[in-house]
Structures are given as structure tokens and as C-alpha cells.
Amino acid sequence: MVNKVLLVMFFLSSVHLAKAQHEQHHKSQAESDQNEEDSARGYVLPMSHAFSLTLPMSRNGSGTGWLPDSSPMYGYMLSHKKWVYMFHGNLFIRYNKQDITEKGSRGDEKIDAPNWLMGMGQRRVGERGLFRFSIMMSLDPLIAGGSGYPLLFQSGETYKGKKLVDRQHPHDLFSELSVGYSHRFDSNMDLFFYLGYPGEPALGPVAFMHRVSALNNPDALLGHHWQDATHITFGVATIGFRYKSLKIEGSSFTGREPDEERYGFDKPRFDSYSFMFSINPNSNLAFQASQGFLKNPEGLGDNVKRTTASILYNFPLFPLIKKNYNFSTSLIWGYNNSGHNHQEHSISFEPAVQLNKWAIYGRHEWVQKSSEELDITLEEDKTFNIQAYTVGFNYTLVRHWNINFTLGTQGTFFKNPNDLYSIYGKNPLSAEVYLRINPSIMNMGKKEHGH
Fold first, then answer.
1. How many CB atoms lie within 10 A of CB 279?
2. Residue 418 neighbours by CB under 8 Å, 6+ apart
3. Is residue 24 included in any domain, yes or no?
4. Which residue segment(s) compose the domain that 313 sits in?
5. Which of 159, 266, 379, 406 lies in the 20 to 30 Å Cα band around 79?
6. In the chain, what percentage of residues exceed pLDDT 90?
7. Dist. CA 292–CA 231, nearest whole Å
8. 247-262 pLDDT, tens digit each
9. Closest Cα partner for 195 from 298, 83, 87, 51?
10. What is the DSSP letter of 106?
């Protein structure tokens, strides 16, 4: 059924594409000459959205996902001839102690450095076409090792054949290698294609590492494998169509999550599929709803039907006075149905306020996890309601070469049911201290190098 739907989408879009190409196939020479002149003078050419010549660059999220248009962007831009490039990333050098009360048996502490680095480039193809590529890498497996970093009540993936529990798995060295092409019919309509190995299918919200509301938090969400864990998928193909502020897209991809070999490339299977509907009603809001059918995502034989919905909100504070004053928040729901009485929900809410050098942020999570998920042996499988409340703040000590060096701290209060007191203690706590290194906020539009 899914293949038929994707075939119909492709056929209708191809008909429209042929019609548009027939109507207008001459390139705008004046615009091309101006771009060449700007590039020769050392200006950064304006960058559009990765999958639309009409939409703003600030709507770029992870994969093909959308952020609010008003979202700030942190990174570097440069241009060379007909190409425009962007680079960004995040590095936390931290001390992380989970369960500072030490009343449970699953706490741990570690000095580690969650990190990622991404580069992307794009160029126009004729007047209506846009080609883009992106590369994302992480040194998590080198720094954190195969078992990742401590995080109470976290679960998902394996290490040395055993489930990873109370730890966040490391991300692969190559987290994205993707290409894409989009065609603009007019200012209201785009058709686009996306191929990744690895890449991200049309399923779930913009991944936590790329959401503005989560940029200051070093930790993955406890609901990661309910919401956005498919952001690293070894083999994904997506086709999508935008009409004004609406977008519909479908993906075929590999359901199995990355294996324990974090430096290699897993076998592409294309045995799963998903659909996503997105809408940005104004410059401050981004909505999405999606559903995917994942074959054996954890390698344990169970298939999962995953459903998600999210609201991302961003509001620039004092936009006419200060560029780095901003409020952002995300509300995310994820639901996994793997059968066998395993139907579990998760909800995440994460607000963040950026006041130039100061940032205050938080996260509240409610997630249902089974005794099997938490690797707890009981006579019969049970589902536990886990809550986590995180509050953090940081201050940018130095800005040099357009790089922020920011000192911060955060703490988390976990609320767990009575049945887990003997394992985790009653309402364990965690604390972290970190130095964050990331690019400064970008000026949108043209600017000269070095200014």
C-alpha cells in the first residue's frame, strides 16, 4: 500500500514538474551575474532553505523537518562561486553525576563530551532547481565509548549484546551523509527528494540536537526512542511536496537502529516506511504529525508502530534592539505500539530563554517504560510512569572568532514509582557542570567575510 501511495505522489509531482519546465526553462542571467559578482567581492551569498528556494534558511531542521522561521541560527556561512556552505555544531565538556543521593544501585558518574559537527552546502540548478548535501559527524564513540554516557531511566540500543539501560548510547561517527534536490514550481509549491546513508526519515520532530529549545542541554531525552531516535538511519529515501505553509512527505527506510559498530555503515534494508504532515502557520510556530512502521528497530525481533506530534514555538525578544534575546519551547508526544501489551506514551516539554550571554532552560518529561525496557526481572511485565524535571542555566564567558565559550550547570529531579525504590532509590537526583563550545549567532543575509 505504501509503495502505491509513494508512486502516486511521484507521478503527480512529475506531471507538474514537466509542465513547469515546459512553461519556463531559461535561466535568469541577471541574477546569476549578480551572484557571481557578489562572490568575487567576498560576500556571503544568501542561503535559502535546504529544500526550497522560497523558504528561509532559518526553517532548516534535521533531515527534512521544519523549525519556526524566527529561529536563531548558530554557525558559519561562506560562499564560493555558485556554492553556499554552512557549518555548525555543539560540544559539551562536562562532569556528569547521575543519582547524587547514591541511594540507588544504578547511578554512575563520568567526565565526557557529548558533541556533533555538521556541514552543508547548496547550489542552484537552473532557475528552479536546488541541490544540497549535508554531512554530520560525532566523536561520541571515541570519547564516551561503546556504552555512552550515564543517564538515569534512559534505554535503547545495545552494547556487547546487552541492553543499554540508564545510559544514553553514543551516536555514530557518521550520523548523516545525505543529498537532496528540490524543484520550485512557483513561490507556493516545491517538490523535493532526499536520500541519506545515513539520514533521517520523515518521522518525528526535529531531532533534539537541532531544536533551539534543547541546544543548551547536553542530554538526550528519556523519550528519545519514542520521538526522534530515527534521526540516524542507514538507508532512507524521502519524497515530499510543499504547498504554501503545508508539507506532506513519505519515506522508505531501514527500521533497524544503528548497531554497536559505531564507526561503520550498517546494511541498508528499506523495510520500513513513514508519513509526515507539517504546517508552519506563522513565523513563530511549527507543527508536525507523523507515523512510521519500523521493522525490528532494537534488533530484538519486535516491530514498532510509532506515532508522534509536536509543536515548536520560537519568539525573538527585543528583535529591533538585540539579536540574541530569544524564547523557544517544544511540546512533543511520542507513542510506541509494539504489541504484546506494549503500548507506551511519552511527553516532553522544554522551554528555554536566551538573554544574550545568559541562558535559562528546563525540561519536563513523562514517559512510560516497561520492566523489560528497564531490564528489570519480574514475574510479569509491568509498565512504570517515569518523570524527570530538569533546570539549568549558563553564562557565556568569552566570544572569540565567533565561537561561544559558555559555562553552565543543570540538575534533574526524577520521580519514579514505589516499585522502583529498591533499584533507583526514592526520587533520585542528578547534577552536571559543563563548558559548552559552539558557534555564535549568525547574521542573516549578505555580509562580508570577517565582519
1. 15
2. none
3. no
4. 40-439
5. 406
6. 78
7. 13
8. 999 999 999 999 999 9
9. 51
10. S
Give the residue among 157, 74, 158 at the shortest CA–CA distance from 396. Answer: 74
The beta-strand segments (E) located in 138-173 are 149-159, 162-168
One DSSP character per residue, 225-268 reads HHHTGGGSBSSEEEEEEEETTEEEEEEEE--SPP-S-TTS-PPP
Quick count: other Cβ atoms within 10 Å of Cβ 179?
Answer: 14
For the chain, percent helix, then strand, then coil, each to nearest 5? 15, 50, 35
Give the position of cell 514517559.
367
Q: How many CB atoms lie within 10 A of CB 32?
A: 13
Residue 238 lies in a domain: yes
Extract the C-alpha cell encoding 200: 533521517
Has residue 355 been placed in a domain? yes
Report strand pairing: 383-400 vs 325-339: unpaired
- Contacting residues for 379 by C-beta, under 8 A, at least 6 apart: none
Which grid cell sits at 286?
A: 511549527
- Evaluate the CA torsion angle 242, 247, 248, 253 in order and state its sign: positive
Quote the Cα angle for 113-118-122, to 5°.
175
Question: How far is residue 41's CA from residue 134's CA, in Å, rounded to a whole number?
Answer: 26
Angstrom distance (rounded) from CA 280 to CA 28: 30
Give the total number of structural domains in the chain: 1
Give the Cα-Cα-Cα angle 95, 223, 1 (nearest 5 degrees): 140
Question: Which residues, 6 or more positions from 400, have their beta carbon under 8 angstroms from its beta carbon?
Answer: none
What lies within 8 Å, CB to CB, of 401 at 6+ separation is none
Tens digit of each residue's pLDDT (9 = 90 or more) over 393-432: 999 999 999 999 999 999 999 999 999 999 999 999 999 9
Can you give the CATH number for the domain in which 350 is found? 2.40.160.10
Does 6 fall in a domain?
Answer: no
Helix (H) or strand (E) holding 42: none
